[in-house]
Design a protein that fits this description.
This protein is of the alpha/beta class. The chain has a single domain, classed as Rossmann fold (3-Layer(aba) Sandwich), CATH 3.40.50. Helix content is 44%, strand content 17%. The longest helix is centred in the last third of the chain and has 23 residues. Bound molecules: cobalamin. The site of cobalamin has 25 residues, from helix 1, strand 3 and strand 4.
């Protein structure tokens, strides 16, 4: 019998139409045992937030961005107050010169984790799930 490792909300940033990596990531996370709610390309922050509100059990929001406009696309991230960790990956600045300040500015916008490759997702999701399980223990004991 299959057992889900948890729900993730996946999508590509608001101005971004690049679909290939998104489909590959959805496929590989499903194969790894996750329930993937894939909102697809051109997804505004408000839609990620609404999807998490509908599914409070969501482990993480995973946002891809390829076109170099991630900072504009995520500028309302803090106001959206997404309650689970937000993971961002892809091609996160314009041009071939990648400077660290682009990543610092993403953290400042409220991004929790920045990854370069999709194969970094399963170990991070496992860590997030384990941390959540530890946080839930006192609540379960208090309720019993
Ligand atoms: C195909 C393509 C398109 C197609 C997309 C079709 C579609 N439906 O997907 C079309 C023609 C529509 C397009 C349009 C544009 N594109 Co384009 N496109 C590409 C191209 C050739 C391939 C992208 C691709 O699918 N790669 C295959 C996937 C599997 O790999 P990937 O996307 O690189 O993702 C890898 C990693 O980034 C990472 N990753 C990706 N997402 C995520 C998410 C997470 C969470 C994680 C952890 C990792 C991760 O994993 C993948 C595997 O390693 C790239 C150039 C290239 N050779 O990469 C340019 C490229 C991405 N495009 C680019 C640009 C600029 C544009 C346009 C702005 C061009 C224009 N002036 O109109 C528009 C923007 C459209 C929009 N609104 O977003 C630039 C981005 C430059 C930048 N960031 O500095 C690139 C890099 C080309 C270039 N060298 O200039 N594009």
């Amino acid at each position: 019998m299959s057992h889900s490792k948890g729900t993730v909300v996946l999508g590509v940033a608001a101005s971004d139409a690049h679909a290939v990596a998104n489909h590959l990531i959805a496929y590989s996370l499903r194969a790894a045992g996750y329930d993937v709610v894939n909102l697809g390309t051109c997804t505004p922050v408000s839609e990620f937030a609404a999807a998490v509100q509908e599914r409070p059990e969501t482990l993480a929001v995973i946002i891809g961005s390829l076109n170099g406009h991630v900072h504009e696309d995520l500028r309302d991230l803090r106001e959206a107050a997404i309650e689970c960790p937000v993971i961002v990956g892809g091609n996160l600045s314009v041009g071939s010169q990648k400077d660290a300040s682009a990543l610092d500015r993403l953290y400042a916008l409220g991004v929790d984790h920045i990854l370069s490759q999709p194969d970094q997702l399963p170990p991070l999701l496992a860590r997030i799930a384990a941390e959540r399980a530890i946080e839930a223990v006192p609540v379960a004991v208090a309720a019993s």
